[in-house]
Structure formats: structure tokens, C-alpha cells
Automatic annotation (TrEMBL):
Domain Rhodanese stretches: 97-171
Coiled coil: none
Protein source organism: Candidatus Thiomargarita nelsonii
Protein name according to UniProt: PEGA domain protein
Length: 174
């Protein structure tokens, strides 16, 4: 009969979803994770894009539960100009994870009045040229245009307006 070494259950949790957990340099999945490991010291690393990496050395003879709190990275605009961003990045702007921005609703004002994203201002594409004075003078301010959805015709037109604004030195996203 071959004796097997005893194992200890390590329970790993974090405050984010779809993260990447590595134990002793090997990818193990996403939290909540329960792993049977040999007793002793283990290196745990948890990564998620947009968050600071969490790392801890854990001794399973002393501790068998790890609850990691990942913190959002505070960073300046590392998005390529004229890029299409998702709602996750937009939410980061709204929560203050990026630098200054102006969110521009390119739909007609009647649609804006029916409902819009908090912090957005209304500059309908049809009135864009006559409202450029409402845009920030600071060329470091990011302009984010939105309309109905990413394949909406206004998105394409807003992107064209954004490209013109970039020629004038402003950074724009849609």
C-alpha cells in the first residue's frame, strides 16, 4: 500500500468576477475556488484586467482561507484615440478611475430627455457643428460619444466628428 501525503483544502475568494488565479505559478481558474494542496507554503496570485494584482504567500498549516480584495487601477488614458469602448470602461470613467472626460449623447434631444446615462450632456449629431463651444477647451479631456448602440448610424457619424476633433487635438472615444 502506497501512503499518500495529506492535503489541505484552500478556499480562495475575491471581490471581482472573471479573475485569474495562479497557485505556485500555475493557472487554477477563477474565484471562488476550492483547491486541495499539500500542507506548507504556497504562492497565490490573482489578476484581473483593470485591477492591481493581488499576491500573497499562504502557509496552509496556519491558514486555509484566502479572501482577496482587488483594487481598481487608477490610471490616465491608455486607450487608443478613436476607439470603441464597452460599458465596463465607460463605468470606470463615471466612477473616476480615469482622468477627466465629457460624455456626449449624440441622439436627438427628445431621446436624451426620455433618458440618458448619468453625467452625459446632449449634443445631437445633427447640431454638433453649432455646439462645439460646449466641448472642453482642455485638450487632455477625453470625449466619449454614445447613441443607441455600437452599430447605430449616429455612432459612426459621432466617430467621424470625433476624428475631426482629434485633428484639432482632442482625444475621443465612442
Amino acid at each position: 500500500m502506497v501512503a499518500t501525503k495529506p492535503k489541505v483544502l484552500l478556499s480562495i475568494r475575491s471581490n471581482v468576477y472573471n479573475d485569474r488565479v495562479y497557485v505556485d505559478g500555475e493557472y487554477k481558474g477563477s474565484t471562488g475556488l476550492d483547491l486541495w494542496l499539500a500542507p506548507g507554503l504556497h504562492s497565490v496570485k490573482i489578476e484581473k484586467d483593470g485591477y492591481n494584482t493581488y499576491e500573497e504567500q499562504i502557509d496552509l498549516q496556519k491558514k486555509s482561507r484566502l479572501i482577496a480584495k482587488l483594487h481598481r487601477q487608477k490610471h490616465q488614458n491608455n486607450l487608443p484615440a478613436n476607439s470603441i469602448i464597452g460599458t465596463d470602461i465607460l463605468l470606470e470613467f463615471i466612477r473616476g478611475a480615469h482622468s477627466e472626460y465629457v460624455l456626449i449623447d449624440a441622439r436627438e434631444e427628445s431621446h436624451y430627455n426620455e433618458g440618458h446615462i448619468p453625467t452625459a450632456i446632449s449634443i445631437p449629431f445633427s447640431q454638433f457643428d453649432s455646439n462645439t463651444h460646449r466641448l472642453p477647451k482642455d485638450k487632455n479631456t477625453v470625449l466619449i460619444f454614445y447613441c443607441w448602440h455600437e452599430t447605430c448610424g449616429l455612432s459612426t457619424q459621432s466617430a467621424q466628428a470625433a476624428k475631426q476633433m482629434v485633428k484639432n487635438g482632442l482625444e475621443c472615444h465612442g
